[in-house]
Design goal:
310 residues; alpha/beta; Rossmann fold; N-(1-d-carboxylethyl)-l-norvaline Dehydrogenase, domain 2; 2 domains; 5-stranded parallel beta sheet; 11% strand; elongated; disordered C terminus
Length: 310
């Protein structure tokens, strides 16, 4: 018989949710999942994750429920719409919401959860789909601190680090603040690389300069690796970044912080999407600026010193 305290309902089993749910199941939790997509349901079943007939069934009588959803609209529908999961969850259960959504939408969920006696933890993630299966994601958490303390073993099953930030929407702002720096960094890398190429520096040489310089942050090194081979396959798409920048700008307006760089970078991603490249990786800012300044594909040449040959 399964320990009732180790039962988990999981809503949203896409490219982030599915590998996370697999990690949780491997840690000994009894996971029951649901998603609107038949393809995602089939993928979950292939990984041995039981799938419920409905979202309400997936969360009913579970000690904890974890959600991984794309945006505010889906969050509202899943949580508060007809057949929403908050109405089906048990009192004294814990709702862990991992999506990147607005503080305003999250606060609505909080009010509904409180009314049902449900502890609501906002837990947006730092990391992407390329590493999620390793358990190396980290997360920012806000909500009732006792609920966070009680669910630390559950968090540890699918994230490597958790930072508790406060009782309300602090985690939402933390996630948006981090993503703002990522978006601006992608724009800065595009300008730096275009300037270097115009100055006659070889592609691999400049990437090595970035890797070995004072600007060699984890973010920079994370993107110089695929740029060496001009790999723009998406780990986080331009459309997703545009959506997050809309949330960031909305948050800035709400609290009276002017976000001039965010506004400019949002327009860059708007142009990329308008040109039909919305599904490419967010580092496609590099290719976008190259087109603007008349640069073609660079000569990839020999690998940078110290790099293995292909």
């Amino acid at each position: 018989m399964t320990d009732a305290s180790r039962t988990v309902g999981w809503i949203g089993i896409g490219k982030m949710g599915l590998p996370m749910s697999v990690l949780v199941a491997k840690a000994g939790y009894a996971v029951t999942a649901f998603d609107q997509s038949a393809a995602r349901i089939a993928a979950a079943q292939q990984h041995g994750i039981p799938v419920a007939e409905s979202a309400a069934e997936a969360v009913r009588n579970r000690a904890a429920v974890i959600t991984s959803l794309p945006d505010d609209a889906v969050l509202h529908t899943v949580m508060l719409g007809a057949g929403g999961i908050i109405g089906a969850m048990a009192q004294n259960s814990v709702l862990i919401e991992t999506s990147t959504v607005s503080a305003e939408a999250s606060a609505e969920v909080d009010a509904a959860a409180r009314a049902r006696g449900i502890a609501y933890l906002r837990a947006p993630l730092s990391g992407n789909a390329s590493i999620v299966h390793t358990g190396a994601l980290s997360c920012f958490v806000s909500g009732p601190k006792d609920a966070f303390e009680n669910t630390k073993p559950l968090f540890a099953s699918f994230t490597s680090a958790q930072t508790y930030l406060g009782p309300a929407e602090e985690a939402r702002y933390a996630k948006l603040a981090v993503n703002l720096m990522i978006a601006v960094s992608a724009a800065m890398m595009a300008e730096s690389l275009a300037l270097a190429r115009k100055g006659g520096i070889g592609w691999q040489d400049m990437l090595k300069v970035l890797d070995d310089s004072a600007v060699a942050s984890p973010m920079v090194k994370y993107k110089t690796a695929p740029l060496r081979t001009r790999d723009f396959a998406s780990t986080f798409s331009c459309k997703q970044m545009a959506k997050d920048l809309d949330l960031i700008l909305g948050a800035g307006h709400a609290v009276g912080v002017p976000l001039q760089l965010a506004a400019q970078v949002r327009e860059t991603y708007g142009a990329i999407i308008a040109q039909g490249d919305g599904e490419t990786d967010f580092i496609a800012t590099v290719r976008h600026l190259e087109k603007l300044v008349g640069l073609g594909e660079p000569n990839l040449g020999e690998p940078a010193p110290g790099e293995p040959k292909s």
